[in-house]
Amino acid sequence: MWTQPLNADGKPAAYAYGWWVQEWRGQKLVWHGGWWPDANAGFLLKVPEKDLTRVVLGNTDGLHWGNRLQVAEIDKNPLTRKFLELFAAD
């Protein structure tokens, strides 16, 4: 599920069978999120090489960080960025 398929141009896709996959400082980040405008938001983030998992759920859409829906950019979420800096940075 976390192996990215290749796009037509031969480059890895950001979305891998239900999960977003991206790199952050040389580490693989695997995540999935949900957002319902004016209602709720949340995400599940895994850092496999560090055996870390973070689940964030909110009964507000304030967790949404304005991410574009077609790209993997969870590292731009302020809560996630701080979590990664504190627990996943080498």
Tell me about this structure.
By secondary structure, the protein is mostly beta strands. The two termini are 26 Å apart. The chain is globular and about 40 Å long. The chain has 1 helix and 5 strands, in the order E-E-E-E-E-H. Strands 1-2-3-4-5 form a 5-stranded antiparallel sheet, covered by helices on one side. The chain has one domain. Strand 4 (40-47) and strand 5 form a beta hairpin. The model has no long low-confidence stretch (mean pLDDT 89). Helices cover 12% and strands 37% of the residues.
What topology does this entry show?
Blueprint: E1 15-16, E2 19-24, E3 27-36, E4 40-47, E5 52-58, H1 78-88
Antiparallel strand pairs: 1-2, 2-3, 3-4, 4-5
Summary tags:
mainly beta, single chain, 1 helix
Provide the succession of SSEs: EEEEEH
CA-based shape: globular
Order of strands side by side in the largest beta sheet?
1-2-3-4-5
Largest sheet: 5 strands, antiparallel
Extended strand count: 5
Number of domains: 1
